[in-house]
Write a structure and sequence with these properties.
heterodimer; A: alpha+beta; Rossmann fold; Elongation Factor Tu (Ef-tu), domain 3; 3 domains; seven-stranded antiparallel β-sheet; 20 strands; B: Rossmann fold; four-stranded antiparallel β-sheet; 9 helices; 10 strands; globular
Chain lengths: ~425, ~300
């Protein structure tokens, strides 16, 4: 049994909560006390039917206002897989929450209302999935019961979406006609849409192949913590602990340590449960090296002929997350892999309209929820790859040094163009 | 060609170990909060995974209400001795004796809320700037919204509407002096994951978690252990039953469920079939209001 993380985004009316509720209910994940509670609250509020959104709306303010503000994480499992849902609100003023939910997702579930067709909101979700490099997108054409289970309507929407998706970079898109309310093609195959030859949503979620989404080619190990026991039993032990961010590691591999450029050989891969022959992402392990080098947190262990780029001048797409705008010449703390430095935004190249994908090169600042391309200069070299190549070594956050708040989420582009 | 697949338990473990190491690297004075419950016992194993063969780069701290199950205390002391780590016990009774906290009165009196005073005082006294907790997002709705690295201001308060965005596995570990972080490495684990991990790792947990004969009484539809801290009310009759605890907290606030699950496998089968959440089934402290946990967390609760 492995783990699939997927993101959803949507607002009150598009059936997202009903769909999630259906998945949770049909996999026996909603507990009786939770359902009782939601039913009672729905009645008290005067909702026409049991409002499954109340399951995910965990904060008082959300329940009072009847809106989802923050990312909610929900969990369910089938005998094949454990699932983590990052459930986010869909309106443009919550773009930052959608970006947050998408950052860890293997798959994005995009909802389209069959009556309304491809609206701005569905396009926005697909764009964010593409921007955050979610490898798999499933488009659920929902409310098929309200268009008389029409194959023609479904095919129109599929064609519209495919046309839009040519502007995006999504390696794998699937389409499923569903009725979340009636349960058609959610867990069980619909008997109302015999023309649909594919699988129901849950089957798709259980079987989509995610193992090869990880980068198993570019060997990357950001050193997180140095283990030095200082005990007589382990007097000479010096282990470099961290989480594998790319490639596979084996004892005997020749490696280079960045930024110093020194080379050495992996003597062993240690874990609490004993040595292992191989480490791959996202395992947390401890590397033992042949030579006693000066290696500390923030350094990166790579292969001699394939290593991360070390640079202080970087290009990135940034999603801005606070009210106070990002303006050129501003300084922030930056956290990238296990390395912290300071960064100056030297240039704002353009802002992207996340609905039209239009690039506005006249933009002079980025406000809350805006996404734009910036140039950065950092106080130390960042040991990085393009985000499109590796999400772990291509992502960073910006932190306001006065408030310590996380203010921006960044995705590094390749070499300066 | 190997599949390079990691099971869900190993993926959750790798994430939790990464989180613990981030805290150790970025904070000067972390502490691991230990309750004696299964989640905090799993946390000890994860700390071993993260830092052995070295010692933990932080002490373990128990907020002792004085109303503990004796089995849980015995287990705590034995476990800490086995690990060879440092234990700090912060006592709610001491907070009451010094006037920092005021004992509740009446039949429903509980020291649950008072723990917050003791906890925040201990964090201030030892100048801890990060405290690991074993809370999970599947436990309760307010927790479902909380960050893995959850900021607390100088009053120990959580501000749910003003949380730091948390993306990828890039955690923001920065705090000002006097503030601290609560860090929840088990955020993405479910009750079933914890039990499956206990089985996979062969982790010993207190006998309270397995079915045993115990004298109990029924209150609010829940079965509480008969004990000196919970005086029986009119109409409450003690009786013997075969029960186990799904959570282990304070004796005044934690109820048991009828069960015949005597082994880890039995418990996993029972949890997989359970139709009521563990807190809904057994925690009187969560029943005060729609937002009982949110309110307590804002005050600085676990």
């Amino acid at each position: 049994m492995d783990l699939l993380r997927f993101s959803t985004a949507g607002s009150v009316d598009d059936g997202k909560s009903t769909l999630i509720g259906r998945l949770l209910y049909d996999t026996k994940t909603i507990f009786e006390d939770q359902l009782d509670h939601v039913e009672q609250t729905s009645r008290r509020r005067g909702d026409a039917e049991t409002n499954l959104a109340l399951l995910t709306d965990g904060l008082r303010a959300e329940r009072e206002q009847g809106i989802t503000i923050d990312v909610a994480y929900r969990y369910f499992a089938t005998p094949r897989r454990k699932f983590i849902i990052a459930d986010t609100p869909g309106h443009v003023q919550y773009t930052r929450n959608m970006v947050t939910g998408a950052s860890t997702a293997n798959l994005a579930l995009v909802l389209v209302d069959a009556r309304k067709g491809l609206l701005e909101q569905s396009r926005r979700h697909a764009f964010i999935a593409s921007l955050l490099r979610i490898p798999h997108v499933v488009v659920c054409v929902n409310k098929m019961d309200l268009v008389d289970w029409s194959e023609q309507r479904y095919e129109e929407i599929v064609a519209d979406f495919k046309a839009f998706a040519t502007k995006l970079e999504i390696p794998d898109i699937s389409f499923i006609p569903v009725s979340a309310l009636r349960g058609d093609n959610v867990v069980d195959k619909s008997t109302n849409m015999s023309w649909y030859g594919g699988t129901p949503l849950l089957y798709h979620l259980e079987h989509v192949h995610i193992a090869s989404d990880r980068n198993l080619v570019d060997v990357r190990f950001p050193v997180q913590w140095v283990i030095r026991p200082h005990s007589s039993e382990h007097h000479d032990y010096r282990g470099y602990a961290g989480q594998v961010a790319g490639g596979t590691f084996h004892p005997g591999d020749e490696v280079v340590v960045l930024p110093s450029g020194m080379t050495t050989t992996i003597r062993g891969i240690d874990t609490y449960d004993g040595p292992v022959d191989e480490a791959f992402p996202p395992m947390s392990v401890t590397l033992l090296l042949d030579d006693d080098l000066d290696i500390s947190r923030g350094d990166m262990i790579c292969r001699v002929n394939n290593h991360a780029t070390a640079s202080q001048e970087l290009e990135a797409l940034v999603c801005w997350m606070i009210d106070k705008p990002l303006a050129p010449r501003s300084m922030y703390a930056i956290k990238h892999t296990t390395r912290s430095a300071r960064a100056m935004v030297t240039d704002l190249r353009y802002q992207i309209d996340i609905n039209s994908l239009h690039r506005d090169e006249s933009a002079t600042s980025l406000g809350l929820n805006d996404i734009g391309r910036v140039s950065l200069k950092t106080t130390q070299p960042l040991l990085h790859d393009a985000y499109s190549r590796n999400r772990m070594t291509g992502s960073f956050i910006l932190i306001d040094e006065a408030t310590n708040n996380t203010v921006g989420a960044g995705m590094l582009l390749g070499d300066r163009t | 060609m190997p599949s390079y697949e990691l099971s869900h338990l190993r993926a959750l473990e790798a994430e939790a170990v990464h989180i613990m190491r981030e805290v150790a690297a970025e904070r000067e004075r972390p502490v691991l909060l230990f309750s004696g419950g299964k989640d905090s016992i799993v946390m000890l194993r994860l700390a071993e995974k993260a830092f052995r063969p070295a010692r933990f780069p932080f002490p373990i701290m128990h907020i002792d209400t004085g109303h503990n199950f004796p089995e849980a205390l015995e287990f705590r002391d034995r476990k800490v001795a086995e690990l060879g780590e440092r234990l700090i016990v912060a006592s709610v009774q001491a907070s009451i004796d010094t006037g920092r906290a005021v004992e509740e009165t009446g039949p429903r009196a509980s020291r649950n809320r008072l723990q917050t005073v003791t906890l925040l005082d201990a964090i201030a006294e030892h100048e801890f700037d990060a405290a690991f907790g074993g809370a999970r997002r599947d436990e309760e709705r307010a927790r479902a919204k909380e960050r893995v690295f959850s900021h607390r201001d100088e009053f120990g308060q959580w501000d749910p509407k003003n949380q730091r965005p948390e993306l990828w596995s890039l955690y923001n570990g920065r705090v000002r002096k006097g503030e601290h972080l609560r860090v929840f490495p088990l955020s993405n684990w479910t009750e079933l994951d914890v039990w499956q991990y206990i089985r996979a790792e062969d982790i010993e947990i207190p006998s309270l978690y397995y079915a045993h004969e115990r004298e109990v009484f029924r209150r609010d539809g829940m079965l509480y252990a008969v004990n000196e801290f919970l005086p029986l009310q009119d109409g409450e009759e003690p009786f013997m039953a075969k029960v186990r605890f799904r959570t282990v907290g304070d004796m005044t606030g934690t109820a048991s469920v009828e069960s015949s699950a005597a082994t880890v496998d039995d418990v996993i089968a029972e949890v997989a079939a359970a139709r009521i959440t563990e807190r809904g089934a057994t925690r009187g402290d969560d029943r005060f209001s729609d937002a009982a946990m949110e309110d307590r967390k804002k005050e600085g609760y676990f």
